[in-house]
User: What shape does this take?
Amino acid sequence: MRYVLENKNRIMFAISLIAIGSIIRILLHNNLPAHPSIFITLNGITQPMFMFDLFFVVAIISLLSGILLGGYYTFIVPITVMIITDLVIGNTWILLFTWSGFAIIGFLGYFLKTKNNLKMTYIPRIFGIGIVGILIYDIWTNFGTFLGGWGYTLSWEGLILCYTNALPFMFWHLLSTTIAMAVVIVPIIYLKEQKITLPEFKIDPLERKITLAAPAILMVFALISLLV
Amino acid sequence: MFTKNRSMILFSLKILIPIMVVICLFLYGINAGVITFEKEKIVSGRITATIKIDFSDGNLYSDIFTTDNSTVYDFLLEVEKKGEISIETTYWESFDGYTVDSISYNGKKYESDMSSYWAFYVNGQLGMEGADKVYLNENDIIEWKLEKF
Assistant: This one.
């Protein structure tokens, strides 16, 4: 109870982020437009260049939870959004891979905060780290798809085919999340520099260690889930 | 003053250069034919292929068909026209393709649900597009399987 009273601003903001992410993901998941008429041919496979999904919504929520809240909320907020929306939308056995992927993105947001990189002069670095997070997410989740035996032979050719088939989603993730970062994250950093933003939250050493360990633990659970 | 201008220029370059690289790669892809704005239309004529359906409970169906406009979906419709099976499908606008929701065979309905789904393979390779988008070649082997998640 004491924790709740001391951290009520932090908790309220976390709840707001969870609500916004969940509502947008649930409302839009069945209302995505058809892919645009741009096709790419790689590795002998022709497929749409962009396949739409709502990755960018949860990715921005993950980054914000790391940047603005930090600590436990870095992974609690994105995973809660995924739990709530997966209960409504549904998910597959790969859910631990996607959840741990968003925890990694949240951790990168927290990393930017702890290294004091949240300044307008560091905008290119922030975008760079955001893009790295997206690539890590896609490489990790598609590696899970490959290992899970979802139609891919466990060989080098199967791995290449898996990542080739994932390219339309990766391109969309990069495009949509970069635009979302420009629209959401950059103004927040600007407001932070103008001292018009949320107060800094105190994070104790144990919370910091758990925040560092959480994405790694989730990744291990994801790999174990393939064996079960 | 000079230092401030230099910082501004470096900052602008750090943003503009990646954007220019992406645009150049995109234009190069269009020029090289890797990126196109219209999917190549394939007119395959009459194709003979084998279609197999594995219902995952020991029931197997297999036959050879010859048909026009030969996509994987066309062959499944041929089996339905013959009266061997009955299918239910969903069209997904976001994927611009069909998924098979159920195949009924010998009075039993085999449905996709939270634990299983209908997938198709062409010559052993998992189909990653809608069945109506994958065109076949002569003597291809299509396998429909009720896969478990």
Q: What stands out?
A: The longest helix of chain B spans residues 2-32. The helical segments of chain B are 2-32, 72-81. Chain B touches chain A at residues 7, 11, 14-15, 18, 29, 33-40, 93-96, 114, 119, 121, 125-126, 128-129, 147, 149 (CB under 8 Å). The longest strand of chain B covers residues 97-105.
